[in-house]
From TrEMBL:
UniProt keyword Metal-binding present: yes
InterPro entries, per the entry: HAD-like_sf, HAD_sf
Species of provenance: Rouxiella aceris
SUPFAM superfamilies per UniProt: HAD-like
Key words, A-Z: Metal-binding
Descriptive protein name: Haloacid dehalogenase
GO molecular function (one): metal ion binding
Length: 580
């Protein structure tokens, strides 16, 4: 039975009973016992998880000795003999607060809960838990959900899991026969078998997105729990869902690494290069909004193209002809010029010279292309000079010291953007330039640092990341087209975008929304639990997904065509998976 069918099914019953944990509410942790790890971390108690579980076992022994059927949190801490009374009180209070902090409504089940109330059904919550009804009232209140009758094992001294006695209490308190009750829960034994043994109807809720492994490291538990807790709130296969699940964690992991790695280099200005640095800068603005001691940070609308153009002059022009032709095999002659911001001759003139609009560069002799570029040399150099002036002004506007340390933030691969930037500014500035990258496929420079390289994850993984680099570039992007120039206009720098493309904004908007939502939830939770997951754990889900090649079948990614602006052409359409 689907959730849609369930919403219809509830009309047949007088009382609708919901399990609480992993049904009506879910934790933002993959493993519930990760709460114990967080408590131990807060109070610096070694082996707290084991001690806490032992206290719970002793509470069960005491329960049986007293002929009771359930324990409470008080019972557990009364058997926590390793703590003195003051510490018991503080630790117990913190555990209870954490249990409130880590839960959130299950976006799949809450609509069913509210629908049942709307239909006038008697809605109750029935839960096996050592926490008392006060906790459940607080949970509902926290998310502005209606208060309903609570049947909690710690209060009722009866459970679902053992003999199903709590269902008898529900039946008697609600004054209905068992056949008029539908119970909804995730546990086959407690929520289905025991409910049915008492004559109730039962719906076995199974959430595909929720995983609960045992003994999970705390960082993994947080990252996976945050993903699982919200993934079903997005349309399946949407850009928001993809970005929330993979983009948010990846960008935060890289940002956390970046903050640590830049400290030792005493960076004066951190330039987040377009478009790769857009979301990293956006997250940095959130996480460092109160930090005035760090470097100047700007989203720097410069690119490998604009930096290379800034480096070209009359003397070295011929050396850059291979660059002009790189990745151009499917382009027409006018596209070859347009992608560097040069206005091409009228198409009828190009056509007369043998450069038809639908004729690709690969079909034209090298000599003819070489002659075309040389005939356009004056126009190309004019664009190069304009870019050089614009770049100079951008750096002057930063008001940096003469010997400043500048950091460039980029997704990476070979570090050629950094080299182009250094070449472009060398005649004018004495800055030392550092590059900070998500991944470099090779590196022998002390001024280039990457989160992933062969020394951290091995050469095989690096090669696989590079083979699937488009997947990463889709996340490390921005809601604007590729920057191909920065020129002075009325004493201000104007940024030139590749006008041949017009899809970046609409494609990236859902990705930005999904990542921003993850940023919100991540910051809120980590602030409350006082724990930041490890950087490598945050990026691992997407690295694994990307190198598996599964991204090439992602429904949302498949909607993007001609993502790589440098090689984009009207003559041929490329899907992201075709870029190798």
């Amino acid at each position: 039975m689907s959730l849609i069918d369930l919403a219809l099914k509830i009309e047949e019953f007088s009382v609708i009973s919901f399990d609480f944990f992993d049904t009506l509410f879910i934790r933002k942790l993959e493993e519930p016992e990760s709460v114990f790890d967080l408590v131990g971390e807060k109070f610096k108690i070694d082996q707290f998880r084991a001690l806490r579980k032992r206290a719970q076992q002793l509470a069960f022994v005491e329960m049986h000795n007293k002929n009771k059927k359930e324990i409470s949190l008080d019972d557990i801490y009364n058997n926590f003999h390793e703590l003195d009374e003051d510490k018991k009180h503080a630790v117990k209070a913190y555990e209870l607060q954490l249990e409130l902090d880590v839960i959130c409504p299950n976006q799949e089940m809450i609509p069913v809960f509210l629908k049942a109330i709307e239909l006038g059904k008697k809605v109750v919550i029935t839960s096996d838990m050592y926490l008392t009804s006060h906790y459940f009232k607080e949970s509902l209140s926290k998310y502005n959900l209606p208060q309903v009758p609570l049947f909690i094992s710690a209060d009722c001294d009866a459970t679902k899991r053992d003999f199903g006695d709590i269902f008898d209490i529900v039946k008697n308190e609600m004054k209905v026969v068992a056949e008029q009750i539908l119970h909804i829960g995730d546990n086959q034994l407690a929520d289905v078998d025991k409910a049915q043994s008492k004559g109730l109807s039962a719906y076995h809720y199974q959430a595909d997105s929720i995983t609960q492994r045992k003994n999970v490291p705390i960082s993994e538990s947080i990252v996976n729990g945050l993903t699982d807790s919200r993934i079903n709130s997005f349309s399946n296969g949407s850009g928001e869902q993809f970005a929330y699940q993979y983009g948010g964690p990846t960008l935060i992991g890289f940002s956390q690494w970046l903050k640590k790695i830049t400290i030792n280099d005493k960076i004066d200005a951190l330039l987040y290069l377009a478009r790769d640095g857009y979301m990293i800068k956006k997250y940095s603005d959130r996480s460092c909004k109160d930090d005035v001691s760090g470097p100047v940070e700007v989203y720097f609308k410069g690119s490998r193209t604009s930096f290379i153009l800034s480096s070209i002059n009359d003397t070295n022009f011929n050396e850059y002809i291979p660059y002009f032709l790189s990745g151009a095999y499917e382009l027409s002659a006018h596209e070859l010029l347009e992608r560097i911001g040069v206005v091409p001759p009228a198409q009828h003139l190009l056509h007369a010279l043998g450069f038809a609009e639908n004729k690709a560069i690969k079909e034209i002799s090298y000599d003819n292309i070489y002659n075309l570029l040389n005939s356009m040399k004056k126009d190309i150099l004019k664009v190069c000079r304009a870019n050089r002036r614009g770049l100079h002004q951008l750096l002057i506007d930063l008001n940096l010291p003469d010997n400043a340390n500048i950091g460039l933030v980029d997704v990476g691969w070979k570090g050629t953007t950094q080299e182009a930037f250094e070449n472009a500014i060398k005649p004018f500035f004495n800055y030392k330039v550092f590059g900070y990258y998500f991944c470099l496929i090779s590196n022998t420079s002390s001024t280039k640092k990457s989160m992933l390289d062969s020394t951290t994850v091995g050469e095989e993984t690096i090669n696989k990341v590079y083979e699937n680099r488009v997947a990463f570039e889709l996340l490390f992007s921005a809601p604007h087209e590729t920057i191909i120039g920065h020129v002075l206009s009325n004493e201000k720098v104007k940024f030139i975008e590749d006008e041949r493309q017009d899809k970046a904004r609409s494609f990236f908007a859902p990705l930005e929304k999904g990542m921003s939502e993850f940023f919100d939830i991540y910051d809120n939770l980590t602030f409350k639990i006082h724990h930041l997951p490890e950087d490598n754990v945050l990026i691992k889900p997407f690295v694994d997904y990307a190198i598996s090649g599964m991204w090439k079948q992602n429904k949302y990614i498949l909607t993007m065509q001609n993502f790589d602006a440098w090689s984009a052409t009207k003559n041929k359409t490329f899907s992201p998976g075709q870029y190798i």
